[in-house]
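Aggregate trends can hide what the representation actually does to any particular protein. In the encoding step, the backbone of a single protein was reduced to a row of integers, each denoting a local shape. The record that follows shows the chain in one-letter code together with its fold in token form.

***
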Amino acid sequence: MNDILLQLGKNPQARRLVKTLGLPLPMPQSLTRARGPMEERPLHDYEIAVGGYSRPLGEGSEGEAAEDSALIPVLAETLAKAGATALVASGGVVIPPAFEQAGDAWGRPPRALILDGLPDKLRLDALVFDATQIVDAAGLRAIYEFFHPLIRSLRKCGRVVVIGREPALSTSPEIAAVQGALDGFVRSLGKEIGKGGSTANLIYLGEEAEAWLPGPLRFLLSKRSAFVSGQPVHVSAPMEGDPAADPAEIPWTRPLEGKVALVTGAARGIGRATAKLLADEGAHVVCLDRPGDDELLSSAAREIGGTPLLVDVSDVDAPTTIATFLKDNFDGVDIVIHNAGVTRDKTLARMKADKWDQAVAINLDALVRITEALLEGVVREGGRIIALSSIAGIAGNLGQTNYSTTKAGVIGYVRRLADELADSGITVNAVAPGFIETRLTAAIPVVIREVGRRLSSLGQGGLPRDIGDALTFLSTPGAQGITGNVLRVCGQSFVGA
């Protein structure tokens, strides 16, 4: 069902009328989403302001030289290679040599950005801030000094990305405090800029993880992250012996060429959208759904040149059937996306035991059993396992004790399994959707549906493609540094953590 207020918001005259009359109607900004497969230059002609905090050497006495961040070369090359022009914020006109070199190499010469003398009509597509060197509370002032003069220059549907260090790996409680503070800043800023369709996200880097920054940075700055906001993404360096590709050799176009992907629940909605996106990036997709959806599933598979597989995931023989099929026909699988799931909503006092059992069997038990079977020599080295959780699994939901239980269980499973598989190069993550416009949400009573749409910073529901874009990104080589994460794709829902 169409979002009437979102459609009205696309009409400039309607927006002006609502504002003039002072009507209490939210007019969400239509989001700019990606079209077509991934590109070599997803940030083509973007103008991105780049700032950061430089820690003084030694004890930080006045007049001492500043220690350059280890991220400068990575940021410079990533932005230029993706097609963006860096506007480097500084107190003077000196631009770090790494930005000059990257700009020359890719024809994107950087420009100096003087924060106390900004042009009146400055318009920016994104703001990127390197906070990795902030080690005390005083250093947080640099965040204010960068964003305060620039935030009004951010275009509609713009992007903000802050990069910090993993607080849990800090060498002192004070450093953990200031790095943890970045989370609160980003979440709050996301709520301030969301009405304009803009997003704010945070990347936490682990030890020696700089080389794996380009993938998540490109994703969060691109149109493919339109419904991701207020989220921390944790990036770690793959373990020694990990067969992952050299980060310098990551393919940005057709990144899944030659890969085999399994998508459960692929007949419709999020599963179908995801299968198409994976195929667009070069994967051969095995589309799995229950036998009752044979016609829909066959259509979905034909549309993308994939292979249909009719299996009820809750059947006792399903793990063996799926594993055997993948091994016999493709000699294994590279990407496993657990999308199949059901809702059986009732308050606990009115819920029959069979409704509880169905939700647990399909949403959690089947996922665990199938994964365990596929890990017996079917999932290849460097593979991907991605499961669908839900905001309900994070925050709980009235009338969904069974569903919320299973989706919280998915989160626990993913985090523990990621640790177990760390030395194999197999990454394990979860995606937690918020309110997504599907046939299920279309059946919700109108008042509840409207509330669900508006309870986020972006003030609207997401599309199946939004979830598919996140799942597809996590399937690519560029996401090798991301494992054990739960990525919310919810428009920064006000529900949950």
In short: The radius of gyration is 23 Å. The domain at 47-56+65-235 is CATH 3.40.50.720 (Rossmann fold).
